[in-house]
Amino acid sequence: MREKIDALWCAYPWDLLGDPSVVERVTDSGASGVAIAAAYHSVRAATPLHPTHRIVDAAHAALYAPVRESAWAGMRLRPVSGAAWAGDDAFARAASIAREGGLSVEAWIVLTHSSIVGSGAPDLCVTSAYDETYPYALCPSSPEVRAYATRLVEEVIAAAPLDGVMLEACGSLGVDHLGHHEKTQGADWSALDSALLSVCFCLACVDELGRIGADVDRLRAQIRAAIGVQHASKTRVEDVLSDAAAVLAVRTSARHELLGATVAAARRAGIRQITVHASPDPWATGPFSALFDEAGSVDALVLPGNELLGASAERLAELRALAGGTPLAGYFAALPPETPATISERWPAAIASVDRAYLYHLGLLSAQRLSAVGSATRSARVG
User: Fold this and answer.
1) 6-382 is classed in which CATH architecture?
2) Per residue in 28-56, pLDDT tens?
3) Which end of the chain is more exposed for a tag (fewer CB within 10 A), N or C?
């Protein structure tokens, strides 16, 4: 256990707005700051400890900073305001409350996950081998998507003074989507099935695959033939796709360009602390993208908590080696199936194993869960 661990609560703007006790809850838990959602996907959020409401229904993905016409003019992709349920300038107002209370403030920006934006431009969304579009998943192979994400970062940074930014979905999303009364679990798709259904055949990806010599029709056929078929000898994408290396190359190139553009925008604006949700799996899609090979361009990699909870010393050393010296952060979700008991038991060692802890989520938790997280954070500090 270490003496000092940097811990921040993830929060929505409405968690801080109108709650005079929120800063005290943060500091009492042992955290020093908040990562506030500035651009975020749709969510129906419980607010069990807020003094004036219990549910906030964020009906669609939204920008919680002003959607300025001068900034988005001429762009097909543009965010939609969340003022309908959070009020005008919600991010800036929430950040001001945190900063006045002595907390550090990071902007939490979700880049490629927006059903409302993707539904208006299906040709720019991830498209499966079955020609089925995932409207929540903007594909970063498109220059328009990368331009949209870059402008999103610029506009958030301009909205309020910041200590850093945390980028989520900085890459391609896949078939898995937690939203819209998701009804896909009964299909019993394996991890391989999900990976294959996450291979993108949007126009930009198809063009790039063709440019580097991949047989797109054969890729589609191989994926369709493999979905739902269990083969003991075929457990990896490379076991199924003859052009797997080309698929990975296209996805990696797009992800690198997206990260490069958004990080450059943040650096130009003077941001010194950039963290990005990342996975060590090179085939990873979703909120935690496969960005370990670009670790040197950011200031910390945020890993999902399940990579850290119960991880052996050997695995932790392997993750640090993969990160090449870039600090590691953990994203610890205190929601079910975690319980206050498992949080108290499992979290202290995991929090102590990383350089920074993002605690999910300030506004969603009951008093019992909040207390358990605070105890775990304090225990990680003092041993």
Assistant:
1) Alpha-Beta Barrel (3.20)
2) 999 999 999 999 999 999 999 999 999 99
3) C
